[in-house]
Fold this protein.
Amino acid sequence: MSTPGTARPLTSRRAQPLSGTADIPGDKSVSHRALIFGAMAVGETVVTGLLEGEDVLDTAKAMRALGAEVRRDADGTWRINGVGTGGFSEPEDVLDHGNAGTGCRLVMGAVATHGFATTFTGDASLRARPMGRILDPLALFGARAVGRSGGRLPLTLIGTGDPVPVEYTLPMPSAQVKSAVLLAGLNAPGRTTVIEPEATRDHTERMLRGFGAELTIEDGAQGRVIALTGQPELTPCTIAVPRDPSSAAFPVVAALLVEGSDITVPGVSRNPTRDGLYRTLLEMGADIAFENEREEGGEPVADLRVRGSALRGVEVPSERAASMIDEYPVLAVAAAFAEGATVMRGVGELRVKESDRIAAMEAGLNANGVVTASTEDSLTVEGRGADGVEGGAQVATHLDHRIAMSFLVMGMASANPVLIDDARPVATSFPNFTTLMGSLGADFA
Ligand code: S3P
């Protein structure tokens, strides 16, 4: 669904110490995959804790359009009756993935090895994002695409009914590309292999195994080699979606920045392919305790206890980028309140997210009195110390939920209020963000 209505500005004012419990919604990456794999299994998959954000709801619609039955019980449990591997049918209309790069790209993979055409579109942000990175490997299976210049949406993907298996080395660290290739490989005969020089989030691999696919993962000289045996019968699963560490990052950073805060964030995924922000915050001097470490829904989780902390700037190495790629905007805010500079390297992928996040963060930080520097793939933030951020300016969010939430967090600890031009995109990944932050003590109006 494309962002409806007119822009909704929102102001964030300096907050009193935060307290209470932050119940974070389900993980977005896991939620998309639960719906897609459920739709490709034979029988009923039951999902609890699904993120009911716009991005994921658009994936649910896409699965229905491709022939799966997807319904929600009154208590929030989702039930998916799948069509089996290779069982999708041609959608009657265009699939509109709204703001969701992940939903769109994963579904492209899933339909690429079916013998029909699917037309994809999305909002202005998604229509500006590069799809060639997905279309190139899908062409190796035999799929073709016709779209706008630069492989941009809207585009029509003409799937192949006679796919061949593929071996593909990822040219960039992208779990979306990896997952699209594996999803296409599900309906190709023989073994499809993806080689990732740098490990990216592994939810697709975990879920493929959970649904009964034959998958091997080896660490070799070229990186991780993931091999999938095609055309399995996927058996349905019961999935408890863990809470999203990328969403948890916002109240966590807010509690660190607002002096005297003490909050608990229960059940957050600690998947090592997603925990780079937390490792970085600890290096910066954050007071975060990981309590009750356990396994839920096939993912390691913990309850986080977070207290207000004085932070210091650090160097974030490029090897860590894939494990925290969505968290750099809020890390840049934390860095603004640290003593000394924070240097983030190897972050070129930020330029092709929901917005060019390096440019969007620099513009917003600079307007609010924080000095930054950047290259094509790095960002440096000159910290101003715990009480040093002026604020007082309006920030352009460019239809990017994480830019919007990051600057609302910044306003909570700045001397003057921070205004964002549009809070609507927040609903794509964190629908209850403003109420939840308000319940902890944020002042958004
Ligand atoms: C995602 C992968 C990442 C991330 C996105 C979710 C996924 O994108 O930024 O929010 O669920 O696979 P890339 O694969 O483009 O790095």
